[in-house]
Records
---
Amino acid sequence: MFAYSPLSALVGRPTASAVLRSLSLLAILAGCSDGSNEVQTFAVDVQVTLPETYGQTAAANARVLLTSTERNVTDTAVADAQGVARFPRVLPGTYVIASSLALDPERAFALTGQRTALTLNALDPARTILSAPPSPFVQRLSGSRLGDLVIKEVYYPASRTPSGGTYFSDQFVEIYNNATDTVFADGLLIADAYGPAGQINPTTVPTPLQSQTGSVFVSSIWQVPGTGRQYPLAPGQSLLIAQDGIDHRNDPNGNPASPVNLANADFETFNLRPDGRDLDSPAVPNLTRIVHRGGFDWLLAVFGPGVVIFRSTNVAALDSTLVPGTTATWVTRVPNEIVIDAFEALQNGNSGAYKRVPAALDAGYVFSSGTYTSESARRRLATTIGTRRVLRDSNNSSADFEIITRPTPRSFGAP
Amino acid sequence: MLLGGQAMTAGAQASPYHASSPLPGCCRATPVTPPTVDTLPGLLRVVRHAAALDDLPATSRRFVLGSHVLAGALRLPQDARTERAVHLLAEGSRPAGRWRTWGQAAFTRQAELDVAWRNQSAPSLRSAYVWADSVGGTFRSDHLELAAALVSPAVRGFTVALPVDYGLGQGARRNDPRPLYRRRVAEVAPAVRLQRGAHQVGVGVTQGWHREDLEIGGGTSPEVPVVFRLRGIATFDRTQLISAERALIGGVVGGHAAYHWQSTRWAIATGAMVRLERDSVRDGIAAPVSGGSTRRLRQDLRLLARRQDGRGGVELDLRGQQEISRGRDPVFSAVNAIAEGRRVQMITEWWRGTSRPRAAWLIRVEGIWHALERRDIAADAQWAATRFPLAVSGGHRWPIPAGALWVELGASRESVADRRRLSGRPTRLSATIADPEYALMAAPVSGARVGLGWDRVRNGALTSRVAVSASARRTDGPLFDRRQNLAAQAMALTVELF
């Protein structure tokens, strides 16, 4: 790739052979075209199929996203009646292929016999395409119901202090009522998915639990307290869960460079410890700690967390399992069926192989430009009905979320 | 080479350090002054053939102090909004026995205000692989260029010359993430001339090296900078970094051949040049990886013809040029960034007077056909435009007891035909670089210029010159990217001592 001449420094003197070689090369190149090929594009077909138990095979009208991990550019195609989506001009590279199909109650009934709206997803997190593939890539959809509560924003990259240090106590998760009716948050469970977010270290490998696509495996679980009707969320209202419920910009324990004031959060995650290292904000009620397998506080991975919200009538009965290949790392299995919404962020565009949340729950991921950047992942707006904002929910974080430069707790304004 | 090109224009920089670009300086108003030395059409002018150094006076010396300011919104997106520079130049030639020697030293201190999307020296824009950030700022830089040539006596009609150029410079931006560059350039161009009566034939080769070391990072801001690695007019990747190093390493090989014939009234010279430049970008030091490589092939043809007698003369300068630049992308390992330029230029001058520099009247007409194209295959981005600049200028000299006063007035008009643009996969850079570039290249431009000077003559020889010139250019209306009536201005002041 580098220049053909001995050009590493000007101290080197040209030899006679180097001059002759240069001149002969010049004579050749002056008369003919460049010796290297131009970048070639080619067509790629994706065959999208419905789940095996459905009454049909072809997933007509499925939406397929082809995202370049190098360029972070997404092309979109819609499957035809045979379920084939065509991308006519694809560059060589590594791609995330994500398919989704939203079924309204009528179409769901025709395919499954159940009149429940749902979204089907499929994901290929890292497909290297260097030339025209001989046959279409096949994606089989699987699905879950759409949630009334959705994760509106996850502020996970955290911030830097004025002296350049790192500060992660200002992380938060905001949950939003995307439905038309009031929803009670009492008993709602929130958890973070187990596994690394990318190639953090040279020896980092994806979670070995990836292949078990029927569940999401979580490290810690927290629960909204209440008797069942104590914490109503009207349509368009949100629930703000802070790691620490303080005004991070002005509190003596905070960070003047933090972008958020979380003193008005609805809940915080207080981790009672003998050493008292996690401070309890008296003004903000605490979530109930169900399982905590982390440090002194509920720290979301600054490289990119997976977050799920779910409900369970008997959370204590959820299976705990040892992570294969480890001797003391335990996780809890949360079946896909009880998950209401999921969000996933990874380290960067090349981290698709590290995905932890099954594609049926979340067929994509987002990534910030780095750690401690004060950026935030916020769900996009789908439409506005009256004064109520309806947020995009296709069970695909790549499509549903965007990275914004500053967090916007309880707001949809400009960062 | 500095030789010849520098000898013709005061203050202008025409060295490998300021080598050609696929994108010409289409949009800048440039100051002009008339020549102080009348170099006949010959090998020196037509291909800068060093063995024809005897086209210049055998003994000469020249000192130049100059300054120029270029400003205005009519600029390419990676150009500075304002450029201020001070030049110092010393040049001289003298015989050494039967040999001839020539040397030159030029120093430039330069400030470039509001440079964006380019964190390295401007000559590297010949490469598509440029470091950048979205912040921009003011670069300050110093450049020193040294040139020398040694010419042998004629032996059986053969004359041999060895010119050597060396340039070095460094520049830095004043604000975070504080990019800086250090650049070195060297070039040798041995040449041989054969003279038989009124006929001369010259051939020469060129070998050159250049290297630019780049650093970025540091500063006091707690924000980690986002640095863009440009890979075309719309393709890029970006990363956060604390500090990093990059090196742009390259070389040039070239050659030329030329012919010259002269009679009492006629002088005709024609020549061809070819020049192949290569640049490779190397990211990192400990484990360097390719950041892209560029290959540029430039071919020139030129014909100069002059008829002159004691009352005046006429000169025709016809040039053809083709330059093709192909950038090999580090990700795709294939050519992605392509720039092509083809240019045909005809300059005709008429003057009345004993010689061209001392002509009482001079009229100059210049017409150009210029086809330009840039492509970025990965981003499916492309623009092309064919420009037709036409410029007319006239000059007059008034003899005064201590020398002469002169004035030059000119007007130009650049029309555009066959403009095309494609943006298949728009990126953030499409609106930042590709679209503004196209907007400027597709815009008709009108211009005017004026130059005033005083030449001091003693015993029939020019001893000093004070010159001031100004020029302005302006587009006609809304540009493609909706900007209105962009304009650029240039002013220059030059003092020369001989």
---
Amino acid sequence: MKSTKSRKLRRQRSSRFWSGFYAVLIYTVFYIPVAVMIAFSFNDAPRNYYWQGFTTRWYAKLFSFANTDLWDALIYSLIIALLATAISVIIGVLGGIGLKKFEFRGKKFINMMIYVPIIVPEIVLAVAMLIIFITIGVKLGMGTILIGHCTFCIPYAVVTIKGRISGDNETLQEASMDLGANRRQTFWRVTVPSIMPGITSAAFLSFTLSIDDVVMSNMLSGATQSTLPVLILSMNRTGLTPDTNALTTVMIALLVIGLLTVNAFQRRRRKKDARLAAEAEMAISSAHGG
Amino acid sequence: MTETAPPAARKKKRGSSLPRLAQAGPVSVWMVLFVTIPMLFIIYISFMTRNTFGGIEYKFSLTSYKTLLDAIYFVVIAKSLKVALVTTLLCLLLGYPFAYYIARKPPQVASKLIMLIMIPFWTNSLMRLNAWMLLFQTNGPVNNALLSLGWISQPHKFIYTDWLVMVGLITNMLPFAVLPMYSSIEKLQNSLLEASADLGARPSVTFRKVTLPLTFPGIFSAIILTFIPALGIYTVTDMLGGGKVLYIGNIIKNQFGVIRNWPLGAALSVLLLLITALLIFIYTRFARIEDMEVV
């Protein structure tokens, strides 16, 4: 009896070990390319081919702003990503609320259309837009790239917001209206704060999708300025330069630092909220008791 | 995401149409202008004729669809389908146990583990692909390691092969397979698994008869979110195939670049649209598209 139990325990322990080991293996595969990418930003060779030795000169070169191609592309990408995020969040938040709340003719069709850019291969949508733009004579450039990016960011924003709206929101909105707030006050003071986490993640998602996009930017840029990913794609033919690795390393470092800061703030705020809630509860219960 | 509003509450909203227009209007207009119309137009163009200068002659023809059956294109289409299929299968096989591992952790740990998946994917995808190239090149670390271990006698040529393209595809697509499967496994109730075990089912039977059917929507979302992008992507083949490995995505892109054959590119796009529509149709047989975990 005892031996079977211990055997079962041992088997459980070993299966837990192997599943943990497997997870570490998968994480390793995810992080290997990032590690290699960062390592090559310290490689003492003019092109990304072989490891030649350690140097920090690529960071020095990067921040001497001598490589204007790289910086121009980055700034262009950032401007497009910020504009695409702003437009997508505004249209996506309004659309998410509207598509959840109202019934209108064609709603089913619009709901279906929203999933098209998410599911259909990006090249198909990019090519379809390119044909239209050329046929009606729209000049390719920043405007067309921006439209392209918004077209796949808006659906993600809408889906994220719709997921955040539940029955509670409707009750809250009705309560707000009953208490005499007008529609605008209700929107800004009740609806928006209650879906704020959704808005934040929609913005984050739109920004990351836009800044990493290659296909739309490549097809819709014409012969104008390249975004950073398009520049990287074209540089790949002659070998990437290590200052590109340096730039990418700086970007990922900033992102991770930003994420940790936001997390720390949220945790502190949650703690404070919990403390306030506990105090309030104590005050209420003591008031009742007294 | 269930519809919680009772019909009465919904009817009350039918008042002024101004907020309805302001909220649902912009997104509807955007989707019709930049999704519906371009999609219809590309279908229309696929039935037109290419003129000698690479422009479009608005004359009905089936030439581009007939061209798709030509040996060269047919081979590319078949190969793309095969590679996308293998990529999807491997993503499911590799991703399911991984998703299961994360989903069985306590929620706080699981959300941290999910975060840990996302972080590497904020690095530019092309730079990550370039890293695989550096690792697997002819005199690169992988070949050197295999040589010094004595497993191979001369450097193996990994780069510019379908094999390395598949490594790039799998490593880029795996999170999109893991996330939907994770959320469906996470919803799985422990009590069901315990009930199955109490009724005498062996773990393998419980997995086959309970876990797998209940997490099937997640699995099918994973199939859609890996198979379709894998079929259309051209950056992975551009970066890892060095222009020597051609898939549908590359062929489409080329028709709008140097080669300039819009109707052919449009016809290939329509082919991708049809495959997508077929998969979505199957999906909607047993789940709602709104429930697909895309983010």
